[in-house]
Amino acid sequence: MATMEASSVTELLGSEVQGAPPERGRGPDVPSTWRELGLQSMSAMLVESLSRRGSRFFEALCQWPRWHALNERALAVTHHPLLMAESTRQLAALLELRYLKGTDADRLQPVSVSLGVDPRTQPVEHGAASDVLVHVTISDLVVRTGAVAAYRLTAEFSHAGTRFGTCGMTLAHPSRPRPEAASTPHRALLRPAPAAVGASAEPDVLLTRGAQGRLVIVPRDPGHPVLLPGRPALLPALAVMEAGRQATLLYRGAPPSAVVGIAVRIDAPVPSRGAVVEVTAEGEGGASRFLVKAGEPIAAMGTVTLLRP
After folding, report:
1. pLDDT digits (tens, 9 = 90+) for 293-304
2. What is the pTM of this model?
3. Is there a single domain that holds both residue 217 and residue 293?
């Protein structure tokens, strides 16, 4: 693989999708639809608009509902940190539809994600929804045989004129062929309470206690509308991040408000049921490392950073 030169990047990021089929030639300011972004319902859609601001720079408006499926049910809601990652993923899908002329027919998938949030400026919603401004930068385009095979998206999130978080996401094809998903039977599993893993409700819990006290990914809702839309055979990157977050909160006995950073890298396919999550002790900067194992190999690894007491 080779990174494109600046001139080639400019050609790939044309102001319009020139030469694209009619359904992909819409103007950049036309509102997108939830079906375009591959979502299961309109309620899952977070992106309202996307406009170009430079050769590699874009500006987006998002709306985060107070009653989003991942948020707590409370009068004053601090949004779940994964709303940044899901907004970034939806923005990537929209960029591929509207601007990336050489994107493969099969939509690229997040293979590496990192996010950080400032709890001092993170919005707390009392009303219906939070309006979020996002500054988007696209970089590190990689091309194979004339088609975009990978790229990186960086999103900076602001609310009421104040930046509160960032998310970086690398999108590419899975590094290995997707295997047939095998459902692993698990018996006598003990599922933790939602509060123990920072989940807002029982369907959001992804973990159980398996043999020897191991944490095993067995989603309570295998068709979760945000984490597992369409009942996938393999865990999407955002679900792996959430599994790591839940495992870390359970391991450390910390509240969800303590999470200020999550990162994950997917090295191999993670089955939607049966992978084991291991959390190590706290490292530098308050970060706990987690490993996701599908059998013996390590399929994914990441970190969850918590506020120090």
Report:
1. 988 789 999 999
2. 0.86
3. yes
